[in-house]
Design goal:
Elements lengths: L4 E8 L18 E4 L4 E9 L3 E2 L5 E6 L1 H4 L9 H10 L6 E4 L29 H6 L4 E5 L3 H4 L4 H17 L3 E5 L9 H18 L3 E2 L2 H4 L20 H19 E2 L3 E6 L5 E5 L4 E6 L7 E11 L4 E11 L8 E8 L5 E8 L11 E7 L21 H6 L7 E5 L4 E2 L2 E2 L5 H14 L2 E11 L1 H12 L6 E5 L4 E2 L2 E2 L5 H4 L5 E4 L10 H11 L10 E3 L6 H9 L8 H5 L4 H4 L7 E9 L4 E7 L3 E9 L6 H6 L5 E7 L3 E6 L7 E10 L11 E6 L9 E9 L4 E7 L3 E8 L8 H5 L6 E7 L4 E5 L7 E10 L9 E6 L7 E12 L10 E4 L5 E5 L13 E6 L8 E4 L11 H5 E5 L2 E7 L6 E7 L9 E6 L2 E6 L8 E6 L7 E7 L5 E3 L1 E9 L13 E5 L2 E5 L8 E9 L10 E6 L3 E4 L5 E10 ...
Parallel strand pairs: 1-3, 2-15, 5-6, 5-7, 7-8, 8-9, 18-19, 18-22, 22-23, 23-26, 26-27, 42-43
Antiparallel strand pairs: 3-13, 4-10, 11-14, 12-13, 14-15, 16-17, 17-19, 20-21, 24-25, 28-29, 29-32, 30-31, 30-33, 33-34, 35-36, 36-39, 37-38, 37-40, 40-41, 42-55, 44-45, 45-48, 46-47, 47-54, 48-53, 49-52, 49-55, 50-51, 50-53, 56-57, 57-60, 58-59, 58-61, 61-62, 63-64, 64-67, 65-66
Helix pairs in contact: 2-8
Length: about 1150
């Protein structure tokens, strides 16, 4: 089916005099169609009295190739259509398109982000740049590139969240289109786009623009009506659908005005109007086989005030040429290996002209006899017995039949057999080019074509309704398809196999083994694959026997027509591979389940005795609901938290698949469980395992429930500590507590002395406070500092021909076209710095021969070095010599060499550096290198390198990497001084701590501060101390004391302390008693009292006591008041 799209833009005025009274129509002249050609006219209308909600709105689009217009014809991309739409309102606006083909969500995240192993943001097109342009609205349109690049769904969601958050913070509204279908060969990858589309709709609600469901077919591919033909992009009609969806979502944010309706008058019966109620409509034109002629009809747009405008549509339908009962040679362009053209014969059934729509298609794949040369082989003697030849000679079938021709080269690359990627593109092309029934595509293959049929089915198990294989190979160079998992991937497809018992070209075991493997799947296919073995039939005779059988009860054509994808694939709801199970604790329960196909698992936790409806479970609602949700995969693993101890609960589970529409299980599954009362202490499920380093330890462990870990570090190795002492944090030179979950936990303890022995103890409790009796104890000794060797200067050499690799970090070394010596001076290191080092290649002298440089093309990609380095390999038939000069004779070097050549057989190569040799197999090697360490240059800074052949005519070398190896200096600090104490003895402070026993220990430093803030260099009172004690004459009353260790390299530890010592004497002398000045009775219930204090400087106040007897004790019971004054009136 070919689809034409016309955009009609109407302006409807509320007054008879208006600048918009004349409609703007992006359409002129006649619409010319052909009988049996379906076409769509998309209509958008405008009302000039709309209210503009945003003054001079600025809209920015961030997207990839679809937003850039790929797939659509000129001036029909959805952004261009949206621009035309906005211009029809005759208001000021700005539309900026920052989209770039191939971009993904990482290209648009804010500036400053540098995700490892992912693309960096484009600083000229990302969200940071977009916001600098002062937009009002941003539309993000990224259909599928994140999935195509292998990024996880969570990465996309995270990037969208970052974009949305930063824009929202600046008052900018962001709208996200959903993903779109893309014709990935892998079903699960195509389904991932559907899942992401649903998630985007769920997350962004009114800010999400739904695209996926309309654009996708039941197999999660692009609907043929919207497909541009490349398996990725949309055609004009698809872009129009995106435009309509974007316009519909954005309109309420931009405008407020009258609604517009559409009507048609005088239209032919094959013109049908659909009014979408959002100022848009579509006219579907479906002229049949006898519709040729000229038609004029009227389209009317009417606003809410009954103002209307009429537009006349002039339509010309041309007569359709008759092709029924004929076979024609056609071709299509594929994209594999840079692209090319594949020829195919297409047969039209006898009554095709009367009914050219919805035909089943049979794809027939020939054997090796017709391979290569002219495509006319299919209908000449080489194709005797093939479907193309039989149809050419007048046979008739009730299918469209596609007979492609297998070229010996695909995109210039030699092909020993059918290229499956090209066949996949052919199937996509057929769906777009012809109005077929995509649920009834069949495939048959003979010999090599049978092998291709098996391969296509394995890679595309959801595309073919039924298949037949005639004497086809199944144990292939690409892999033995008889072995798991291949047979059971295609067991749902109806397959019938023929193989003659006298076939001396393809052994019959290829068919018997494959059929037995499929029928042995568990569960077995229903029906099983049928194997037919005609007696006395050889290889070539089988093709004619089966293909020319049009009428017998066992003919394959009638058998084909009994199947469609609707009947092939299971339309039943998913079943449980692992039934729902509950693992309960005292306040939590984990539910797990697995279904037998991709889908969704809905689950809900309810109070005991609740009977939720299916809708309640699907929506996580209903009486007694506690917790629940949905798992968007085959697997459910969810933990209900904060449950009540010793309580009965009901868990309900129901699943559905991803079919369109989805198949939902009829009845939910109930799992009842009771949480238990937790009186048991936790236990260790794994570990503890201690990893010891120079000045620290890491303890890894896992407990059976959340809680706490308590630990202590002691210098005493012979000590008994109970778990409650650890819980009280009362022992050890270090101790601590950490909250833990029930996952693998890691506890780090740092600041330890090097080469020192410690005793580590730990225990655990749970969140209920149940403390374990177990104390886990480890004696360990920290490691010494090891000096390591690290690379300093690195020089990379890429051996090439005249083609530059343009890699910044590599020196291109062209070793072709010279005789004698060829030097490359002042090589650059990988940072682009000049090194003064030179490299010389030798050819034709000193028994050195460089025959040339081989081109591996892209066959060794994705290896240890960049693809441009792996592409070219210098080769020799004997030995080839090179040398570096200008190296430092005092420095140790590491030399890495790589050799790799695409092909078969063996190319064992010997590599020699400074007289030491290693061997490497070079055939198809893209990962292995030989490394020579501890290499020194001779006195004049020269290192010699050679590669040579071993038991073969060829040896190869692609790359040389030479690195300086510099010994790194110890930067690890010593251990923190432990058990710091201080006492005041007379007028001196005596400070003590434990000795540092590290072998590289040098001295101690002491700091004194007047407060508890960390000391600075000005607070240092002494350094260079070799003893672990010090006497100090204080110069201030308040002394905070800190001590550190210093090693021989000058590394200083963290500070131990502080310890607080005050030199101010303790005041134990009470103030003198006050003298009563006056005691006067005032009335019957009041006494006035005044007094004079002793006058001490540190006097803070007075206590007044009262009693009815003399000699009473001064107790709280007799205390009347506390006063800072010298008088008091006692009332009552």
């Amino acid at each position: 089916m070919r689809t034409l799209v016309f955009l009609l833009f109407y302006l409807v005025s509320n007054s008879l005099i208006s600048q918009n009274n004349t409609p703007y129509i992006d359409y002129s002249g006649s619409i010319n169609l052909v009988e049996n050609q379906i076409s769509t006219l998309s209509v958008v209308a405008f009302d000039d009295d709309v209210i503009q909600l945003i003054d001079n709105p600025h809209i920015i689009v961030l997207g990839s190739s679809t937003a850039a217009g790929t797939g659509a014809s000129t001036e029909n991309g959805w952004v261009w259509q949206f621009d035309e739409y906005l211009s029809g309102f005759d208001i000021p606006y700005t539309l900026t398109n920052l989209s770039v083909s191939g971009y993904n969500s990482y290209h648009f995240i804010p500036s400053g982000y540098a995700p490892p192993g992912r693309p960096n943001p484009d600083l000229t097109r990302n969200i940071t740049h977009a916001l600098a342009l002062d937009p009002d609205i941003i539309v993000v349109n990224l259909p599928s590139n994140d999935v195509a690049n292998g990024f996880s769904a969570q990465e996309t969601y995270n990037n969208f969240h970052i974009i949305d958050s930063i824009a929202t913070a600046q008052g900018v509204s962001v709208f996200f289109t959903t993903t779109q279908p893309r014709n990935f060969s892998n079903l699960s990858t195509r389904q991932e786009l559907k899942i992401k589309a649903d998630t985007i709709l769920s997350r962004y609600g009114s800010k999400a623009i739904s695209l996926y469901d309309e654009l996708a077919d039941p197999n999660f591919r692009i609907k043929s009506i919207y497909h541009s033909g490349d398996g990725i992009h949309l055609n004009d009609l698809g872009h129009t659908y995106i435009f309509r969806q974007v316009a519909d979502i954005l309109y309420p944010f931009l405008f407020d005005g009258d609604s517009i309706t559409f009507s048609m008058t005088g239209n032919p019966g094959f013109a049908q109007l659909t009014d979408y109620g959002d100022r848009t409509a579509e006219i579907i034109l479906s002229p049949g086989g006898n519709s040729a002629g000229i038609y004029d009809f009227t389209l009317t747009a009417t606003d809410a005030n009954n103002n209307s405008f009429d537009e006349t549509i002039h339509l010309i339908i041309n007569e359709f040429g008759h092709v029924g009962g004929t076979q024609a040679l056609e071709s299509f362009n594929y994209t594999i290996n840079g692209g090319g053209t594949m020829d195919y014969y297409v047969y039209y059934p006898q009554n095709f002209d009367a009914n050219p729509s919805n035909w089943p298609v049979l794809i027939s794949l020939h054997g090796n006899a017709e391979r290569g040369g002219s495509s006319t082989k299919l209908v000449q003697s080489e194709g005797e017995g093939s479907l193309a030849k039989l149809l050419h000679d007048g046979a008739q079938l009730p299918f469209m039949v596609i007979s492609p021709h297998m070229s010996a080269f695909i995109g210039g690359v030699y092909q020993p057999g059918w290229n499956i990627d090209a066949l996949e593109e052919l199937v996509d092309h057929i769906k777009v080019e012809y109005d077929i029934d995509s649920t009834r595509i069949y495939m048959t293959g003979f010999s090599a074509g049978g092998a291709a049929t098996w391969l296509y089915l394995v890679n595309n198990p959801d595309q073919i309704a039924a298949a037949t294989v005639l004497a086809g190979l199944s144990n292939l160079a690409e892999g033995n398809l008889q072995q798991a998992p291949y047979p059971c991937l295609i067991k749902e497809i109806p397959i019938k196999v023929w193989h003659g018992d006298e076939d001396n070209v393809v052994n019959i075991s290829h068919s018997t083994n494959m059929v037995n493997a499929i029928n042995s799947c568990d569960p077995a296919p229903d029906p099983e694959v049928e194997l037919i073995i005609p007696n006395g039939v050889g290889h070539d005779e089988l093709r004619t026997m089966v293909h020319a059988d049009f009428t017998s009860p066992n003919n394959m054509y009638d058998w084909f027509l009994s199947f469609s994808l609707d009947s092939v694939f299971d339309l039943k709801p998913p079943g449980f591979v692992s039934a729902p199970e509950i693992a309960a604790g005292s306040d939590f329960a984990t539910i797990t389940a697995e279904i037998d196909e991709p889908g969704k698992i809905y689950f809900g936790l309810y109070e005991y005795g609740s009977v939720p409806s299916v809708e309640d479970i699907l929506t996580s609602t209903g009486s007694g609901f506690v917790d629940g949700g949905v798992s968007d995969s085959r697997f459910l693993d969810y933990t209900f938290q904060d449950l009540t101890n010793f309580t009965l609960y009901d868990a309900w589970v129901i699943a559905q698949d991803l079919a369109n529409p989805p198949n939902l299980q009829r009845d939910p599954v109930l799992v009842q469980f009771t949480t238990f009362s937790d009186t048991l202490p936790p236990t260790m499920q794994s570990g503890p395992q201690v990893e010891v380093s120079t000045g620290a330890i890491s303890v890894n462990f896992r407990t059976n429930e959340p809680g706490n870990v308590y630990w202590a570090l002691l210098g005493d190795l012979d000590v008994d500590v109970a778990s409650h002492q650890l819980q009280q944090l009362s022992v050890g030179i270090q101790h601590g507590q950490k909250s833990i979950g029930s996952n693998l936990e890691s506890l780090e303890v740092t600041g330890l002395a090097k080469e020192s022995t410690y005793n580590f103890l730990m225990t655990i409790d749970d969140v209920e406070g149940n403390l374990s009796d177990s104390v886990y104890q480890f004696e360990f000794t920290t490691l010494p500092v090891e000096t390591t060797v690290g690379a300093s200067t690195v020089i990379n050499l890429n051996l090439i021909n005249s083609t530059s690799s343009n890699l910044d970090e590599w020196n291109d070394i062209n070793v072709t076209g010279f005789s004698g010596y060829k030097s490359f001076n002042n090589l650059l290191d990988e940072d682009g710095n000049e090194t003064g080092v030179s490299f010389t290649a030798i050819n034709g002298v000193q028994a050195s021969s460089i025959v040339g440089v081989a081109n591996n093309n892209s066959s060794l990609a994705n290896g240890v070095f960049p693809d441009e380095v792996l592409q070219y390999a210098a080769y020799t038939t004997g030995g080839a010599n090179f040398y570096f000069e200008g190296l430092d004779p005092t420095i140790e070097y590491s030399v890495q060499l790589h050799g790799g050549r695409s092909g078969s057989g063996s190319r064992l190569t010997s590599f020699t550096v400074q007289g030491e040799s290693q061997q490497l197999e070079c055939i198809n090697n893209n990962t292995e290198v030989v490394t020579f360490d501890e290499v020194f240059s001779n006195g004049n800074g020269r290192i010699d390198i050679q590669f040579s052949n071993i038991n073969s005519s060829w040896a190869y070398m692609n790359a040389i990497v030479i690195s300086e190896m510099i010994e790194e200096i110890d930067t690890f600090p010593p251990g923190v001084p432990s058990n710091l104490s201080a006492i005041l003895q007379g007028n001196q402070i005596m400070i003590n701590w434990d000795d540092n026993l590290e072998t590289d220990f040098h001295s101690y430093s002491i700091y004194i501060t007047a407060d508890s803030g960390l000391p600075g260099s000005g607070d240092l009172i002494v350094n260079g101390l070799s003893q672990s004690e010090y006497e100090y004459d204080p110069i201030q009353q308040i002394n905070y004391i800190w001590v550190s260790s210093v090693d021989n390299t000058g590394n200083e530890s963290s500070l131990s302390g502080p310890i607080l010592i005050s030199t101010e004497p303790i005041d134990n002398t009470p103030p003198s008693a006050p003298v009563i000045n006056e005691l006067t009775v005032i009335g019957i219930d009041s006494i006035y009292l005044s007094w004079t204090g002793g006058g001490e400087a540190d006097l803070s106040g007075y206590n007044v006591y009262r009693s009815q007897s003399s000699g009473f004790p001064l107790t709280v019971a007799n205390l009347v008041t506390t006063s800072t004054g010298t008088s008091y009136t006692d009332i009552g």
